[in-house]
Amino acid sequence: MTPAERGRRAGEVTQKFILGVIAGGAAAIGVVEVVLLIVRVAGLLGDEAVTVAGIPLASPLEPDFAAGLAAVTAASYDSVTLTIAGLVGSARGALVGAAIVTSLLSIAVCAVVAWLALRVFLGRPFVTSASWGIGLVAVLAISVGFLQPMFLGFAHAEIAQQLGTDALPTFLVELDPAPIAWGLALAVVGAAFELGQRMQRDTEGLV
Length: 207
Description:
This is DUF2975 domain-containing protein. Keywords: Membrane, Transmembrane, Transmembrane helix. The protein is mostly helical. It has one domain. 70% of the residues lie in helices and 11% in strands. The protein is built from four helices and two strands, in the order H-E-E-H-H-H. A two-stranded antiparallel ribbon has the order 1-2. The longest helix has 44 residues, at 3-46. It is elongated and about 75 Å long. The two termini are 28 Å apart. The mean pLDDT is 85.
């Protein structure tokens, strides 16, 4: 075996090792995410007191600790974390919905990454399942961009109504454009994989 062949062989082995690590890591993260989702849902549905983070305030408030700090010219916070005993079922259900859609996106991304790494490992990345998988993740990402804020907005509204305080807004939805942008980008990647699959079939037909 010539030095060039040994170098090429070493590169192929290294590439396959890296792909194996990526596939295994993505699969492991997906499994962990499933377990964490189950624990989170069980806590939201079964715990007497539920901790809810990131509840927006109707208007920003000034923290007391900053009043005596000469170097701080201004300070405020616009969200709080509350632990609520006897949280109403409608708020619990909305929080469960937000947790599920968010975790489903993470699980789907891990599954697609593991599958793509496996297909590249086998030397055939452009397959129908890869294109469909990327397309599914794109749809999930765009859906999460709309559904997760809606679920959280409804949950926060139910919490405000249960507590009966004007410090929390009656209903507020804070849209995050990042998942929507990622979904659109993944849709383009899925289209590129579909084009690659067609070119692969055409090339195989010429051989």
